[in-house]
Specification:
Helix content is 28%, strand content 21%. It contains twelve helices and 21 strands. The strands form four sheets. Strands 1, 2, 3, 4, 8, 9, 10, 11, 20 and 21 form a ten-stranded mixed β-sheet that branches. A hairpin with a 5-residue loop joins strand 20 and strand 21. The relative contact order is 0.18.
């Protein structure tokens, strides 16, 4: 067994650090800093040993995108691969593990169905998302789901994602409990096929050959610094939501104070290293480039009532509605940031509580020890969610008077869909909810072949990007499940592109 190879049940069992071996030749040193905005990702004073073995492909980051890329390469006959992960286990440091596990697919896998899914993505991003990669996701997601199933992945039956013209399904058994098993299954498929891994190994920089192409990575493990050569390198390190410097620089002066829902390891390692290699930050600016949701502080990573929100009334501390709840949880999460105290409640009655989508979120909150407030009157509910009773009662009564059960008309803040009356006799609320961020929509500038691009559009040879590290796919908002779509589709597509174009 190669010294980098771990047990076939690596994801469950032990981990192996990347070993240092004697120098076996010289590469051009780490690239100079080509961006004034690039943040240092590690101590680069040590040159590091050059690993004895050269790989066809190195995949950096073992989340859904990285595992998908590495496993797909094995499927395509590319056996000489290395999957590098900063954390201790494959999949353990990625946002997918704390996601709801949702994927979205077209109503029908036809040109019309895929076009409808693209249109939803465009609507969410106000037409400013990357059209090429958005189309790639819509075109490839059904095949990607089938591919995961072929490796043992299990999913719930798809149902319509109201009010959108698409379907949603979950990694089984659903309700935020399926992504761990799915990642485990895919990771085991990779290691069972003989795929090599290196955990507890942090990317520091990319290295170049004498032709200026990326020819490998410089990493740090508990054994020191090492340079590992490869014909192609895939960035799958996720986003930058835990990088306070980037948040303050690009989101705003208060960006570094936003609660992080996502994994604390997502500090933009791959993004920053690619910028130092000549790449470009893409669509990073302002709060529109940040995914936020109103979540329960007791467990912000899991307790996001994203299924329920469209059917509820979002109430601020003044007892007033402030947003169109049917626009989704990211829209609401951003709206909360401008409300008094940055705190809200999602109010609903027993009719809404009986809906499957809402019941699933209530069950999720109960399992996580988060609060779902119950009351037998609006006055009692107002006391429990700490808002003026008269204001809450007036807000609910006004809403009920202006809805036809589907949408409202005549309100200062209209609701365009799912405008179910709130009449009791029993009332509920997800409370308290505060804004938290799980990922950024910005990242690296890339082309249709998923190559990292320089600011002038020139591809950086040998360097590819997948998943959350791709910038500009979404902006302002995104469809629930679309980020997991992006990860698995771009991961498998990068593998196919490299297999056919680089290693042919």
């Amino acid at each position: 067994m190669n010294e980098r190879t771990v047990s076939r049940r690596h994801f469950i069992g032990g981990v192996a650090s990347l070993g240092l071996v004697g120098a076996a030749g010289a590469l051009t040193g780490c690239a100079p800093n080509k961006s004034e905005n690039a943040a240092s990702s590690g101590n680069l004073n040590e040159e590091g040993h050059v690993a004895e073995k050269e790989y066809d492909v190195i995949v950096v980051g073992a989340g859904l995108a990285g595992i998908s890329a590495a496993l797909k390469l094995r499927d395509l006959g590319v056996q000489n691969t290395l999957l590098v992960e900063k954390g201790g286990t494959l999949g353990g440091s990625c946002n997918a593990t704390i996601s709801g596990g949702a994927f979205n697919i077209p109503m029908e896998d036809t040109d019309e169905g895929r076009a409808a899914l693209v249109e939803i993505y465009n609507t969410k991003s106000k037409g400013e998302g990357d059209p090429t990669i958005t189309q790639m996701i819509a075109d490839g997601i059904v095949e990607a789901i089938d591919w995961m199933k072929s490796h043992g992945g299990e999913f719930t039956e798809p149902t319509q994602l109201v009010p959108w013209d698409c379907l949603q399904l979950y990694a089984a058994p659903g309700n935020a409990e399926g992504m761990g098993p799915l990642l485990n299954t895919l990771a085991n498929a990779y290691t069972d096929a003989g795929g090599e891994t290196a955990t507890k190994t942090k990317l520091l920089d990319f290295v170049f050959n004498d032709k200026g192409a990326v020819a490998g990575v410089k990493v740090r493990s508990d054994k020191g610094f090492e340079i590992i050569k490869a014909k192609a390198t895939i960035i799958a390190t996720g986003g930058y939501v835990a990088n306070k410097q980037l948040l303050e620089q690009y989101i705003g002066p208060d960006g570094d104070s936003i609660m992080v829902r996502g994994q604390k390891e997502l500090a933009g390692d791959g993004i920053n290293a690619a910028v130092r290699a000549g790449g470009m930050y893409y669509q990073m600016g302002g709060a529109q480039a940040l995914h936020m949701a109103a979540v329960a502080p007791k467990n912000p990573a899991i307790c996001n009532p994203f299924n329920a929100i469209a059917y509820t009334l979002a109430i601020n501390t003044l007892g007033q509605r402030y947003t169109d709840e049917s626009k989704g949880y990211v829209n609401n999460g951003k709206a909360v940031t401008s409300q008094p105290g940055q705190k809200c409640a999602l109010v609903f009655d027993e009719t809404v509580a009986a809906m499957d989508a809402v019941k699933s979120d209530m069950e999720k909150f109960h399992k996580q020890g988060a609060d779902v407030v119950e009351a037998t009157s609006l006055e009692e509910l107002a006391e429990k969610i700490e808002v003026p009773a008269d204001a809450l009662k007036a807000t609910v009564e006004e809403f009920n008077a202006h809805t036809d059960g589907e949408s409202t008309s005549g309100l200062d803040v209209e609701k365009s869909a799912c405008a179910v009356m709130c009449t009791g006799p029993k009332f509920y609320a997800f409370y308290p909810l505060v804004p938290g961020s799980i990922m950024g929509f910005g990242g690296l500038y890339a082309n249709e072949s998923l190559q990292v691009l320089e600011p002038d559009g020139t591809p950086i040879e040998g360097l590819y990007v997948t998943g959350e590290a791709i910038g500009g796919v979404f902006k302002y908002d995104y469809l629930a499940g679309a980020s997991l779509n992006r990860s698995v589709v771009t991961g498998t597509q990068a593998a196919s592109i490299i297999s056919s174009q680089v290693l042919k």
